[in-house]
Specification:
Blueprint lengths: L1 H6 L3 E7 L13 E7 L3 H9 L3 E4 L6 E6 L5 E7 L3 H15 L1 H16 L14 H5 L1 H10 L5 E5 L3 H16 L18 E8 L2 E10 L4 E9 L8 H15 L4 E4 L6
Parallel strand pairs: 2-5, 9-10
Antiparallel strand pairs: 1-2, 3-4, 4-5, 6-7, 7-8, 8-9
């Protein structure tokens, strides 16, 4: 009710998600909430006035993330209508609510991860701890079982995402010109360099790299589509999303170099 009041007419719907939304599932003492809005940008001021701290996108472009700490610890995920992460979270939540076997497997996985102290640490250059990343394979499995196939545009974070990022980049950009590929190039973790993946459901179909040149200019260093997914429209969709994201970051000029044959 407090969130609805703060957002006013901008609020479309609110969903309780995460482990605390699943009866019987062990959880951290934090509540995850999705607020679906008409305008994400217009939600920032009112929610800050209501005591929420704006934290940006995290690893999900076009997300507006907030946290609130105190008697209740809340992670508030604000998305504009039709963002694919809304349905993804609801599908996973509802699957656990209605499948006791999956709930028990997920609870055991969480316990095993928490028992490993190393999983609580964040690696250099990573958004999330090993605990969060360690749940990824299970979540992907459930989404596949549920037939989730929405298009997702993300910052590369998980080791599986990075493996596919490097493989596609090597096969599409470096192998054709017989140039060795370095997956540890400085630009992978350097400030101002952003690495993206485009997914269809849980399958990574295209990858891209943007470098900020200054406050108003950025360069698309490359984008490439994996071979099985060529000629399916992703070569058009990826630059469209890159342009939209760059514009949301205040970029006025987006540059790109290319071989004449391309």
């Amino acid at each position: 009710e407090l969130i609805k009041k703060a957002l006013g007419d901008n609020c479309i719907e609110i969903h309780h998600i995460g482990s605390t939304a699943v009866p019987g599932l062990c959880s951290k003492p934090k509540i995850d909430i999705i607020a679906v809005v008409q305008s994400g940008q217009d939600s920032i001021g009112p929610l800050e006035d209501a005591g929420y701290n704006y934290r940006g996108e995290w690893n999900i472009p076009f997300k507006f993330g907030f946290t609130k700490r105190g008697v209740l610890a809340i992670n508030l995920h604000v998305f504009e209508a039709h963002h694919p992460e809304i349905e993804l979270n609801l599908i996973f939540r509802d699957h656990l609510r209605s499948n006791p076997d999956s709930l028990l497997k997920y609870a055991k996985l969480k316990g095993d991860l928490l028992a490993d102290e190393a999983s609580l640490q964040k690696q250099d250059g990573k958004f999330f701890s090993g605990y969060n990343l360690g749940k990824d394979a299970f979540i992907r499995q459930i989404l596949d079982e549920e037939g989730y196939n929405k298009q997702r545009f993300l910052r590369a974070t998980h080791h599986l995402e990075w493996e596919n990022y490097h493989r596609i980049r090597k096969e599409q950009m470096f192998d054709p010109i017989n140039v060795p590929y370095d997956p540890n190039h400085f630009s992978i973790n350097a400030e101002g360099h952003c690495h993206f993946i485009l997914c269809r459901g849980t399958k990574i179909v295209s990858v891209a790299h943007i470098e900020f040149l200054n406050d108003k200019e950025a360069a698309v260093r490359f984008f490439a589509t994996d071979i099985p997914y060529k000629n399916q429209g992703y070569a058009k969709e990826m630059p469209t999303l890159l342009e939209r994201w760059a514009r949301s970051q205040g970029i006025d000029v987006l540059k790109m170099h290319s071989r004449p044959s391309a």
